[in-house]
Amino acid sequence: MNIDWKHIDTVLLDMDGTLLDRHFDDHFWLEHVPRRWAERNKTSLEQAKKHLYALFNSQENTLNWTDLDYWSSHLRLDIPLLKKEVEHLIAVHPYVVEFLLFLRQHGKHAWLVTNAHSKTLDLKMKKTMLGPYFSGIVSAHQVGLPKEDDRFWGELRRFIPYDPRRTLLGEDSETNLGTAARFGIRYLVYISRFSSRLQPEPSSTYQSIHYFSQLIPGFGEAG
Question: Are residues 63 and 145 in contact, defined by beta-carbon separation less than 8 angstroms?
């Protein structure tokens, strides 16, 4: 993909599915939590999944969706502790570190901008050691709005002084790319290989990549 980097000052990057393999999150919420909930409530895994999936879907596109305290209270489970049980599945996508080093070497301001809860961030940054590569990290819980909300990107400027016309956003959510587009963020990149366990499908709306190596001039298109 051809990106004219001299027109970009700021790079905003999502975390789950974009920098990190979303297999961890999919497995955690779709398999691990239902299994533990079924054990606690003495019900079948099938019934647990049916019940929990409906609860999860009811909170989609809200801050509750990623709020570990909300789910701990609502499900009567220690969600942060359950995450530690499967933290070995947390993994950085290929070529992410190389891309972050490229941004640093070329004087770009890289920010991690995520819907993730602070307890999730702490766990994943300790596991991956990616934190020092960023100018800073902003959670939607700090902003008070999820990225799915059109108002998010304007409110984000209270935390990051960025010019949307000179900003690139990398996301595995077409919904979030859509809210960013409406705000005026100029360079939008969809990460199609968000999970190592699923076949990637390019977006029909946004420029798509499998790996961040595709944004590094001269690196070649891996994968």
Answer: yes
Task: With beta carbons less than 8 A apart as the criterion, state whether 172 and 17 touch.
Answer: yes
Q: What does the H/E/C string look like for 193-223?
A: CCCCCCCCCCCCCCEEECCHHHHCCCCCCCC
Residue ranges of the chain that CATH labels 3.40.50.1000: 5-21+91-215
| Ranges of the chain whose pLDDT falls below 70 | 220-223
Please, what CATH class does the domain formed by 5-21+91-215 belong to? alpha beta
**Per-residue confidence (pLDDT) for residue 1, from 0 to 100:** 72
- Whole-angstrom distance between the N-terminal and C-terminal Cα of the chain? 13
Inter-residue contact 155 to 143 (CB < 8 Å): yes
Q: Are 123 and 84 in contact (CB under 8 A)?
A: yes
Distance (Å, rounded) from C-alpha 140 to C-alpha 173?
15
pLDDT computed for residue 7 by the predictor: 96
DSSP run (H or E) holding 169: strand 167-171
The verdict on pTM exceeding 0.90 is: yes
Write down the residue that tokens 């300790």 correspond to.
126
* Other residues' Cβ atoms within 10 Å of the Cβ of residue 3: 15
